[in-house]
Design brief:
Glucose Oxidase, domain 1; four-stranded parallel β-sheet; single chain; alpha/beta; eight-stranded mixed β-sheet; 22 helices
């Protein structure tokens, strides 16, 4: 199938824009690869320290003829999505030995749960944790004894941080091993209704807690299509998982067999074998375009609009918001997974999942097929489904038809003709909105604004009955320089109640929402942010804003001429719950439009 002209044009534009930094990056990677296996550059004393605790593996390590695989793990048992990783190092070591290779845990990286910190002070560390993860993974791999790396991570900032690290060590082959989603619990729409009832005071905390515990009930990723599951989609579309690995439940024989197969494949693609596949060759502009197309086709997380530019920059690829917008206009929305629909990711996977989507998009010319992946050459490998055959992974052709067209539809009959994200521009700067769950009649709103500098103040105004007419709620000083750009997802139940009462309501913020951005129109990541002199700081109560997701505009219709920007007291943002440690991050963070990065 001929490549769609928009896909081709955007890819060419990214390639031309990235020519300089990409050439520098690839030259650096080539020079590192030319040095040969990393262990050969260590002294005997260096190596003795690295192998001292490796027991029966010592002889293989010293001989330097078999690959040594480094494991970077984000394991902790406070994140349900990461708790299954506790067993992975033992599985990986055993699988490596069976192939004549060795494996060592190179290091651990922090992994915070946005579900635990949602609406709490700790959320102000969340975005910056991505850069800490990249730094921590870099420390683990700096020991220079690894021929390949396996990355164990799933959730919101963890995968992007690990990608930044993998790209930095791009001369080392890298495979990402997921843990899979938890089994389905309380349906997401029922959970949302309970949250709204709690917001209005109809039920108490005991009933809310019962609902939440029935939703988040076991090991694995939360089952809604938020950032964690968007990350897993991304790894498959970009060729960094084994085909079909993303949405297999934890603790199953198929999940364990995929972990073993990933280990075996990591050993096969090192420079010591005949199929050397450094990750720098996989992470090119085509892989990132494929990832963005997947994001649009699935109605994925708005957080990836922040993360993908940062991830790409680590590999010398420069992405801009216009790339996301143009690819969204060319990509049909093929999936309806909560919050865009009632189904969860287990239902999506059962309906045909990522393999079906990739096949459809390839046939329509909406993906680059001619890419390198960890599984081999060509993205068509990712239309296959893994099966167990005598305890090992084998592949069969994936389904050519959707098994549930209420969840998953073909390119020829999508839920919407365009993707789930829209760039907004205007006299308030740049922003992005996720529209895949927003009803068509709510995608344009023109109304007076109410200004807040704190999400709790919005909820207090709601409880006081102050929202009685159409309103654009502006929550500013929530950007990365202000307070680390926390998610404001806790506002969703409140704003949804107002919308259900018949009001037209929208959110405009220089902060984030989350992968669970839903039915309330929200212009997020407004850039420049208020603390950086952005026009959003000029707004006053009563100004009229027009948010138009159809034309991609965000405009203040009131005259802002001659106004002085508002100032907020941000002194309280610098201490408590570890915020003191991140002052250097707040002072040096980049723009949201370029990924809000500190290390890239």
């Amino acid at each position: 199938m001929t490549l769609h002209p928009t896909i081709a044009a955007v890819t060419d534009r990214i390639r031309a824009r990235s020519e300089g930094p990409r050439a520098i990056y690839l030259d650096r990677m080539a020079r590192a690869a030319a040095e040969g296996p990393r262990r050969s550059h260590l002294t005997c004393g260096n190596q003795a320290h690295a192998y001292a605790a490796m027991g029966a593996d010592k002889d293989a390590l010293v001989a330097e003829r078999a690959p040594n695989i480094g494991i970077i793990t984000a394991y902790n048992d406070m994140l349900s999505a990461h708790q299954p990783f506790e067993r992975y190092p033992d599985l990986i070591r055993a699988a490596a030995r069976a192939t004549g290779a060795t494996a060592q845990v190179a290091g651990g990286v922090p992994a915070m749960c946005d579900g635990v910190t949602q609406g709490q002070t700790g959320m102000e560390l969340s975005l910056f944790s991505r850069d800490v993860i990249a730094l921590a993974a870099g420390v683990g791999l700096s020991h220079n004894v690894f021929d390949a790396a396996l990355y164990l991570g799933v959730c919101d900032k963890i995968v992007p941080g690990l990608i930044i690290a993998a790209a930095t060590f791009g001369y080392i082959p890298s495979i990402f091993l997921p843990a899979g989603p938890m089994t389905s619990g309380l349906p997401n729409d029922e959970k949302a209704k309970v949250r709204q009832k709690f917001a209005t005071g109809e039920i108490g905390r005991a009933e809310l807690m019962k609902s939440e515990m029935a939703s988040y009930h076991g090991p694995g990723t939360c089952t809604f299509y938020g950032t964690a599951n968007s990350n897993q989609m991304l790894m498959e579309f970009m060729g960094l998982h084994l085909p079909g690995a993303s949405f297999v439940n934890p603790g199953t024989p198929l999940r364990d067999a995929l972990t073993v197969a990933g280990t075996e494949r990591a050993a096969e693609i090192t420079a010591l074998g005949n199929d050397y596949r450094p990750v720098c060759d996989i992470l090119d502009e085509r892989a990132f375009v494929n990832g963005i197309v997947g994001l649009m086709a699935t109605g994925g997380s708005t957080n990836l609009v922040l993360h993908l530019p940062a991830m790409a920059r680590a590999a010398g690829v420069i992405l801009e918001l216009q790339d996301f917008s143009d690819l969204s206009h060319a990509t049909p929305l093929m999936a309806k997974v909560y919050p865009n629909g009632l189904a969860d990711v287990n239902h999506f996977h059962a309906a045909g999942g990522l393999g079906y989507m990739i096949g459809q998009l390839l046939d329509a010319g909406l993906l680059h097929e001619d890419v390198k992946t960890v599984a081999g050459d060509g993205l068509s490998l990712y239309t296959q489904e893994p099966r167990l055959a005598e305890g090992r992974i084998s592949y069969v052709p994936g389904t050519k038809t959707s098994l549930n067209d209420r969840i998953l539809r073909p390119v020829s009959d999508p839920f919407q003709p365009e993707g789930g994200l829209v760039q907004l521009t205007g006299n308030l700067g740049q922003a992005v909105i996720k529209v895949s769950a927003v009803a068509a009649e709510r995608r344009v709103i023109e109304a007076p604004v109410r200004i807040f500098h704190d999400q709790n103040a919005v909820k207090a105004a709601f409880q006081a009955g102050e929202f009685t007419s159409d309103t654009v709620v502006v929550v500013r000083f929530q950007g990365p320089r202000s307070n680390g750009m926390p998610e404001l997802h806790n506002l969703t139940p409140t704003l949804a109640v107002l919308q259900d009462r018949g009001l037209k309501v929208a959110l405009v913020t220089d902060g984030r929402m989350s992968g669970a951005s839903g039915k309330v129109p929200a212009a997020i990541h407004v850039c420049p942010e208020a603390a950086d002199g952005g026009p959003i700081a000029l707004l006053q109560d009563g100004d009229i804003i027009r948010l138009d997701a159809l034309t991609g505009t965000l405009t203040c219709l009131s005259d802002l001429t001659g106004r002085s920007p508002a100032e907020a007291d941000l002194t309280g943002n610098g201490n408590g719950v570890g915020r003191e440690l991140f002052e250097v991050f707040r002072q040096n963070v980049g723009l949201a439009a370029t990924g809000a990065g500190v290390v890239v």
